[in-house]
Each structure stands twice: as structure tokens, then as C-alpha cells.
Design a protein that fits this description.
The protein is of the alpha/beta class and 206 residues long. The chain has one domain: Arc Repressor Mutant, subunit A. The protein has seven helices and eight strands, in the order αββββαβαβαβααβα. A four-stranded mixed β-sheet has the order 4-3-2-5, with helices on both faces. It has a two-stranded parallel ribbon with strand order 1-6. It has a two-stranded parallel sheet with strand order 7-8. Helix 5 packs across helix 6. GO terms for molecular function: methylated-DNA-[protein]-cysteine S-methyltransferase activity. InterPro entries: MethylDNA_cys_MeTrfase_AS (IPR001497), MethylDNA_cys_MeTrfase_DNA-bd (IPR014048), MethylDNA_cys_MeTrfase_DNAb (IPR036217), MGMT_N_sf (IPR036631), WH-like_DNA-bd_sf (IPR036388).
Length: 206
């Protein structure tokens, strides 16, 4: 398999995500907005696209991260608790599996709810990312223009890089204006594969 290829199972799951998983996001931009949250549920799950660390509250998924070399489970948990101070953390594969259920084909109209920590600026950037559809890409400068901050492309790049929910907030669709696919926290090869398959799926659907 070349570096742009996916197995049929991977491609089918990516198609499902793109076609049947509308995403709604609660952006917690102040301590008051997350005051009612008391507990985080976390677990690792094997999916057609790889092993994912899933964390969430009673209101939705807060993190969806691919496994990365050198990044331990303990480090991910420490980072999560720094973002959500004062919360308890429970390892709960059944609970996080229920959060993932719409991604795995449990109902055409279920949709996915996210509950993320964000600065007001990050919330604007991530919301704009949700408007970049499968098969499309956007440059950092274009994304900055879309949120009304055309000179803030570097800050936009930092916000894109801080995205806590892989795939569902599609930071992989942001590319440099100069060409190429650019960086990706979970590997440039993975980003190329995602973009290549999304492009082909979009062409087939049109």
C-alpha cells in the first residue's frame, strides 16, 4: 500500500464520518461555562483509522487524539487535567464508546456533540474549520480572512495546531498557501492520506 492509500475499511469509515456525522460544539471559553462539569471519562479505542484517545464530559467529546510516538497515556491525562482543573478522571471504555457511537454507524441522524476548552479566538478558528467540507482545503491566510482577522495567520496556525478533536474539527484540511500539505500533529503521511481519500470521495459524490 502506498502512502496515499487506505484500506477499504479505512476509506469507508472516513466516508461515513464525512457524510453522516454532523458536529455541534460547545466552546467553554471561561471557567463559568464549565462550572457544572465534574468528571472526565477517558479511554483508548481502536478505530479503522487508528488508535484514538477519547476524553469527554457528560456533554460531549472533549478530546479525540491519535496515538503518537513518545506521547504516553500518563502525559495525555496530565495535560487533560491541566485544561480541566479540579475535575476527577475516570477510565470508562463503555462511556467513551457511547460518545463514539455516532462515528461508528449508530444511527444516521445521531450527530456528534463536542465539549471543548477554547479561547474566544480558538473558538472562532475551530468553528470556521467546521465549514471547510470534505475534499476542500483552505490556507492559513484564507482561514484568517474568514474569521475577519486577515493579518492573524500565524495566530490562526497556532489555533489550528491546538485543535483537541482530530477528524471532527478538520484541522487536516488547512494547508500552506505556498503548496504541499504542511504540518500535522499526528504525522504528515496521515494528513496526506486523509486529504487524498477525502478528495476522491468528494469527486465520486459530485
Amino acid at each position: 500500500m502506498d502512502h496515499l492509500s487506505m484500506t477499504p475499511g479505512e476509506a469507508c469509515w472516513l466516508a461515513w464520518l464525512n457524510l453522516h456525522c454532523p458536529v455541534s460544539v460547545r466552546y467553554n471559553t471561561s471557567p463559568a461555562s464549565r462550572a457544572s462539569v465534574k468528571e472526565l471519562r477517558v479511554a483508548w479505542h481502536t478505530t479503522p483509522l487508528g488508535c484514538l484517545f477519547v476524553a469527554g464530559t457528560s456533554r460531549g467529546i472533549s478530546q479525540l487524539l491519535f496515538r503518537r510516538p513518545g506521547v504516553s497515556d500518563a502525559l495525555l491525562r496530565r495535560q487533560l487535567l491541566r485544561q480541566w482543573p479540579g475535575l476527577s478522571m475516570v477510565t470508562d471504555p463503555d462511556g467513551t464508546a457511547r460518545m463514539l457511537a455516532p462515528l461508528l454507524g449508530a444511527g444516521l441522524s445521531a450527530g456528534v456533540e463536542l465539549d471543548v476548552i477554547a479561547t474566544p479566538f480558538q473558538a472562532r478558528v475551530w468553528q470556521a474549520l467546521l465549514e471547510v467540507g470534505p475534499g476542500a482545503t483552505v490556507s492559513y491566510g484564507e482561514l484568517a480572512t474568514r474569521i475577519g482577522r486577515p493579518t492573524a495567520f500565524r495566530a490562526v496556525g497556532r489555533a489550528v495546531g491546538a485543535n483537541p478533536v482530530a477528524l471532527l474539527i478538520p484541522c487536516h484540511r488547512v494547508v500552506p498557501a505556498t503548496g504541499g500539505v504542511g504540518n500535522y500533529r499526528w504525522g504528515v503521511s496521515r494528513k496526506r492520506r486523509l486529504l487524498s481519500v477525502e478528495s476522491r470521495l468528494s469527486a465520486l459524490a459530485s
